[in-house]
Amino acid sequence: MRSPVALTLAAATLAALACCAYPAATADDGSLTFAAVGDSITAWDPPYNSDPLNSWITTAVGDDLQLGGGWALSGARLELMLASVKPTDADVLVVMAGTNDVRHTTPVEDRLARLAAVIEMIGIDEVVIAAIPPLDSDPVGARVWNDALSAYATAHGITHIDPWRTLRSLDNSWVEGASADGTHPSHSAAAAAGMAIRNELVTRFG
User: Fold this and answer.
1) CA-based Rg of the chain, rounded to a whole angstrom?
2) 63-84, pLDDT tens digit by residue?
3) Is 139 helix (H, G, I), strand (E, B) or coil?
């Protein structure tokens, strides 16, 4: 029999997973909707991200582009994303995932398999795979993963975007002032990435 502590932790985990799913937006005015899947760099409300201004979604949304569901949680890896996402009705899916997998050295092949399964589970035809931001603790690992994402997108006819391009130094770390901790973007860096994704979605799918 599981202990009361274990049962309590399991219940808390299930509750957290249920709460991390963003409700679907209604776009009766004809505006474009997108679903987002990711970690703290995507999660745009506490407690799933302690500082919403560090999320690219904050500047991506607008009158003509609405958040239409998805799932995101600080610290999430692709394994947890796959266990948590559900079919979603939106015009476009944006996935920005893998920073925490890089930090935990999850094999690239496993990450790609889970990414493919996440996309399949969500069930949206139009998909955008976004590069992860720089990672000062493992810039080489982040580059390897971003290269794998780009190759995967090309092989499967999926749109790929690097919204962090102007925020990435030559050695694949953050440019000066773009991150306080070497992992998460500053408010201005997140805003720049959000605008880059917004422009891509509105231009390509709007």
Assistant:
1) 16
2) 999 999 999 999 999 999 999 9
3) helix
